[in-house]
Protein: carbamoyl-phosphate synthase (glutamine-hydrolyzing)
Amino acid sequence: ENSLSFEDPNKQHLVQEVSLKVPHVFNPGGSLRITAVDCGLKYNQVRCLCQRGAAVTVVPWNHPLDTADFDGLFISNGPGDPQLCQETVSNLRRVLAAPQPKPIFGICLGHQLVALALGAHTYKMKYGNRGHNQPCLHEETRRCFITAQNHGFAVEAGSLPPGWAPLFSNANDGSNEGIVHEHKPFFSVQFHPEHRAGPTDLEGLFDIFMEAARDL
Structure:
């Protein structure tokens, strides 16, 4: 009897498959230089940045990063296990350690990659959080926001090193939904604030990121 072979999708380097291969610039006349690492990027993320005056250079997932090339660094969403993107993690680690920090903003997989770069841990969730109506609590104010999500991996909030703190948590299962540095302009979120045809409660996070880049 012949058996069928099955490939474990969790072991596929999906980011490598979906990321663009060469850099591409959107809105080249923008006043702020934002580098966006494409791990499976959505155009709505680029639109949110361009609408706020950014010249957005989208680069491949493993593109070398130099803080001299940008005013702010954005890391996109994407598919699969963040542990497979070790080149991205290494690149982010160097940016996080730069003597003159530039603002960093990660979304979804980008959130998980930032966490790995700073030394925290990620894990595969039993069910994942998916849908247009995931409630998230802002840690400082305890205000609840409705968010759009589609992820099967998450960040272990308890593994954050000193200087970092949880920013949001999921009101349903308590899983981490965001992290922020206590002094430097670094933050990331698990949900999709750019989501169209869904909740836009937290699209203002793009404003916070852009203002941080302007304040350099």
Q: What stands out?
A: The chain has a mean pLDDT of 96.
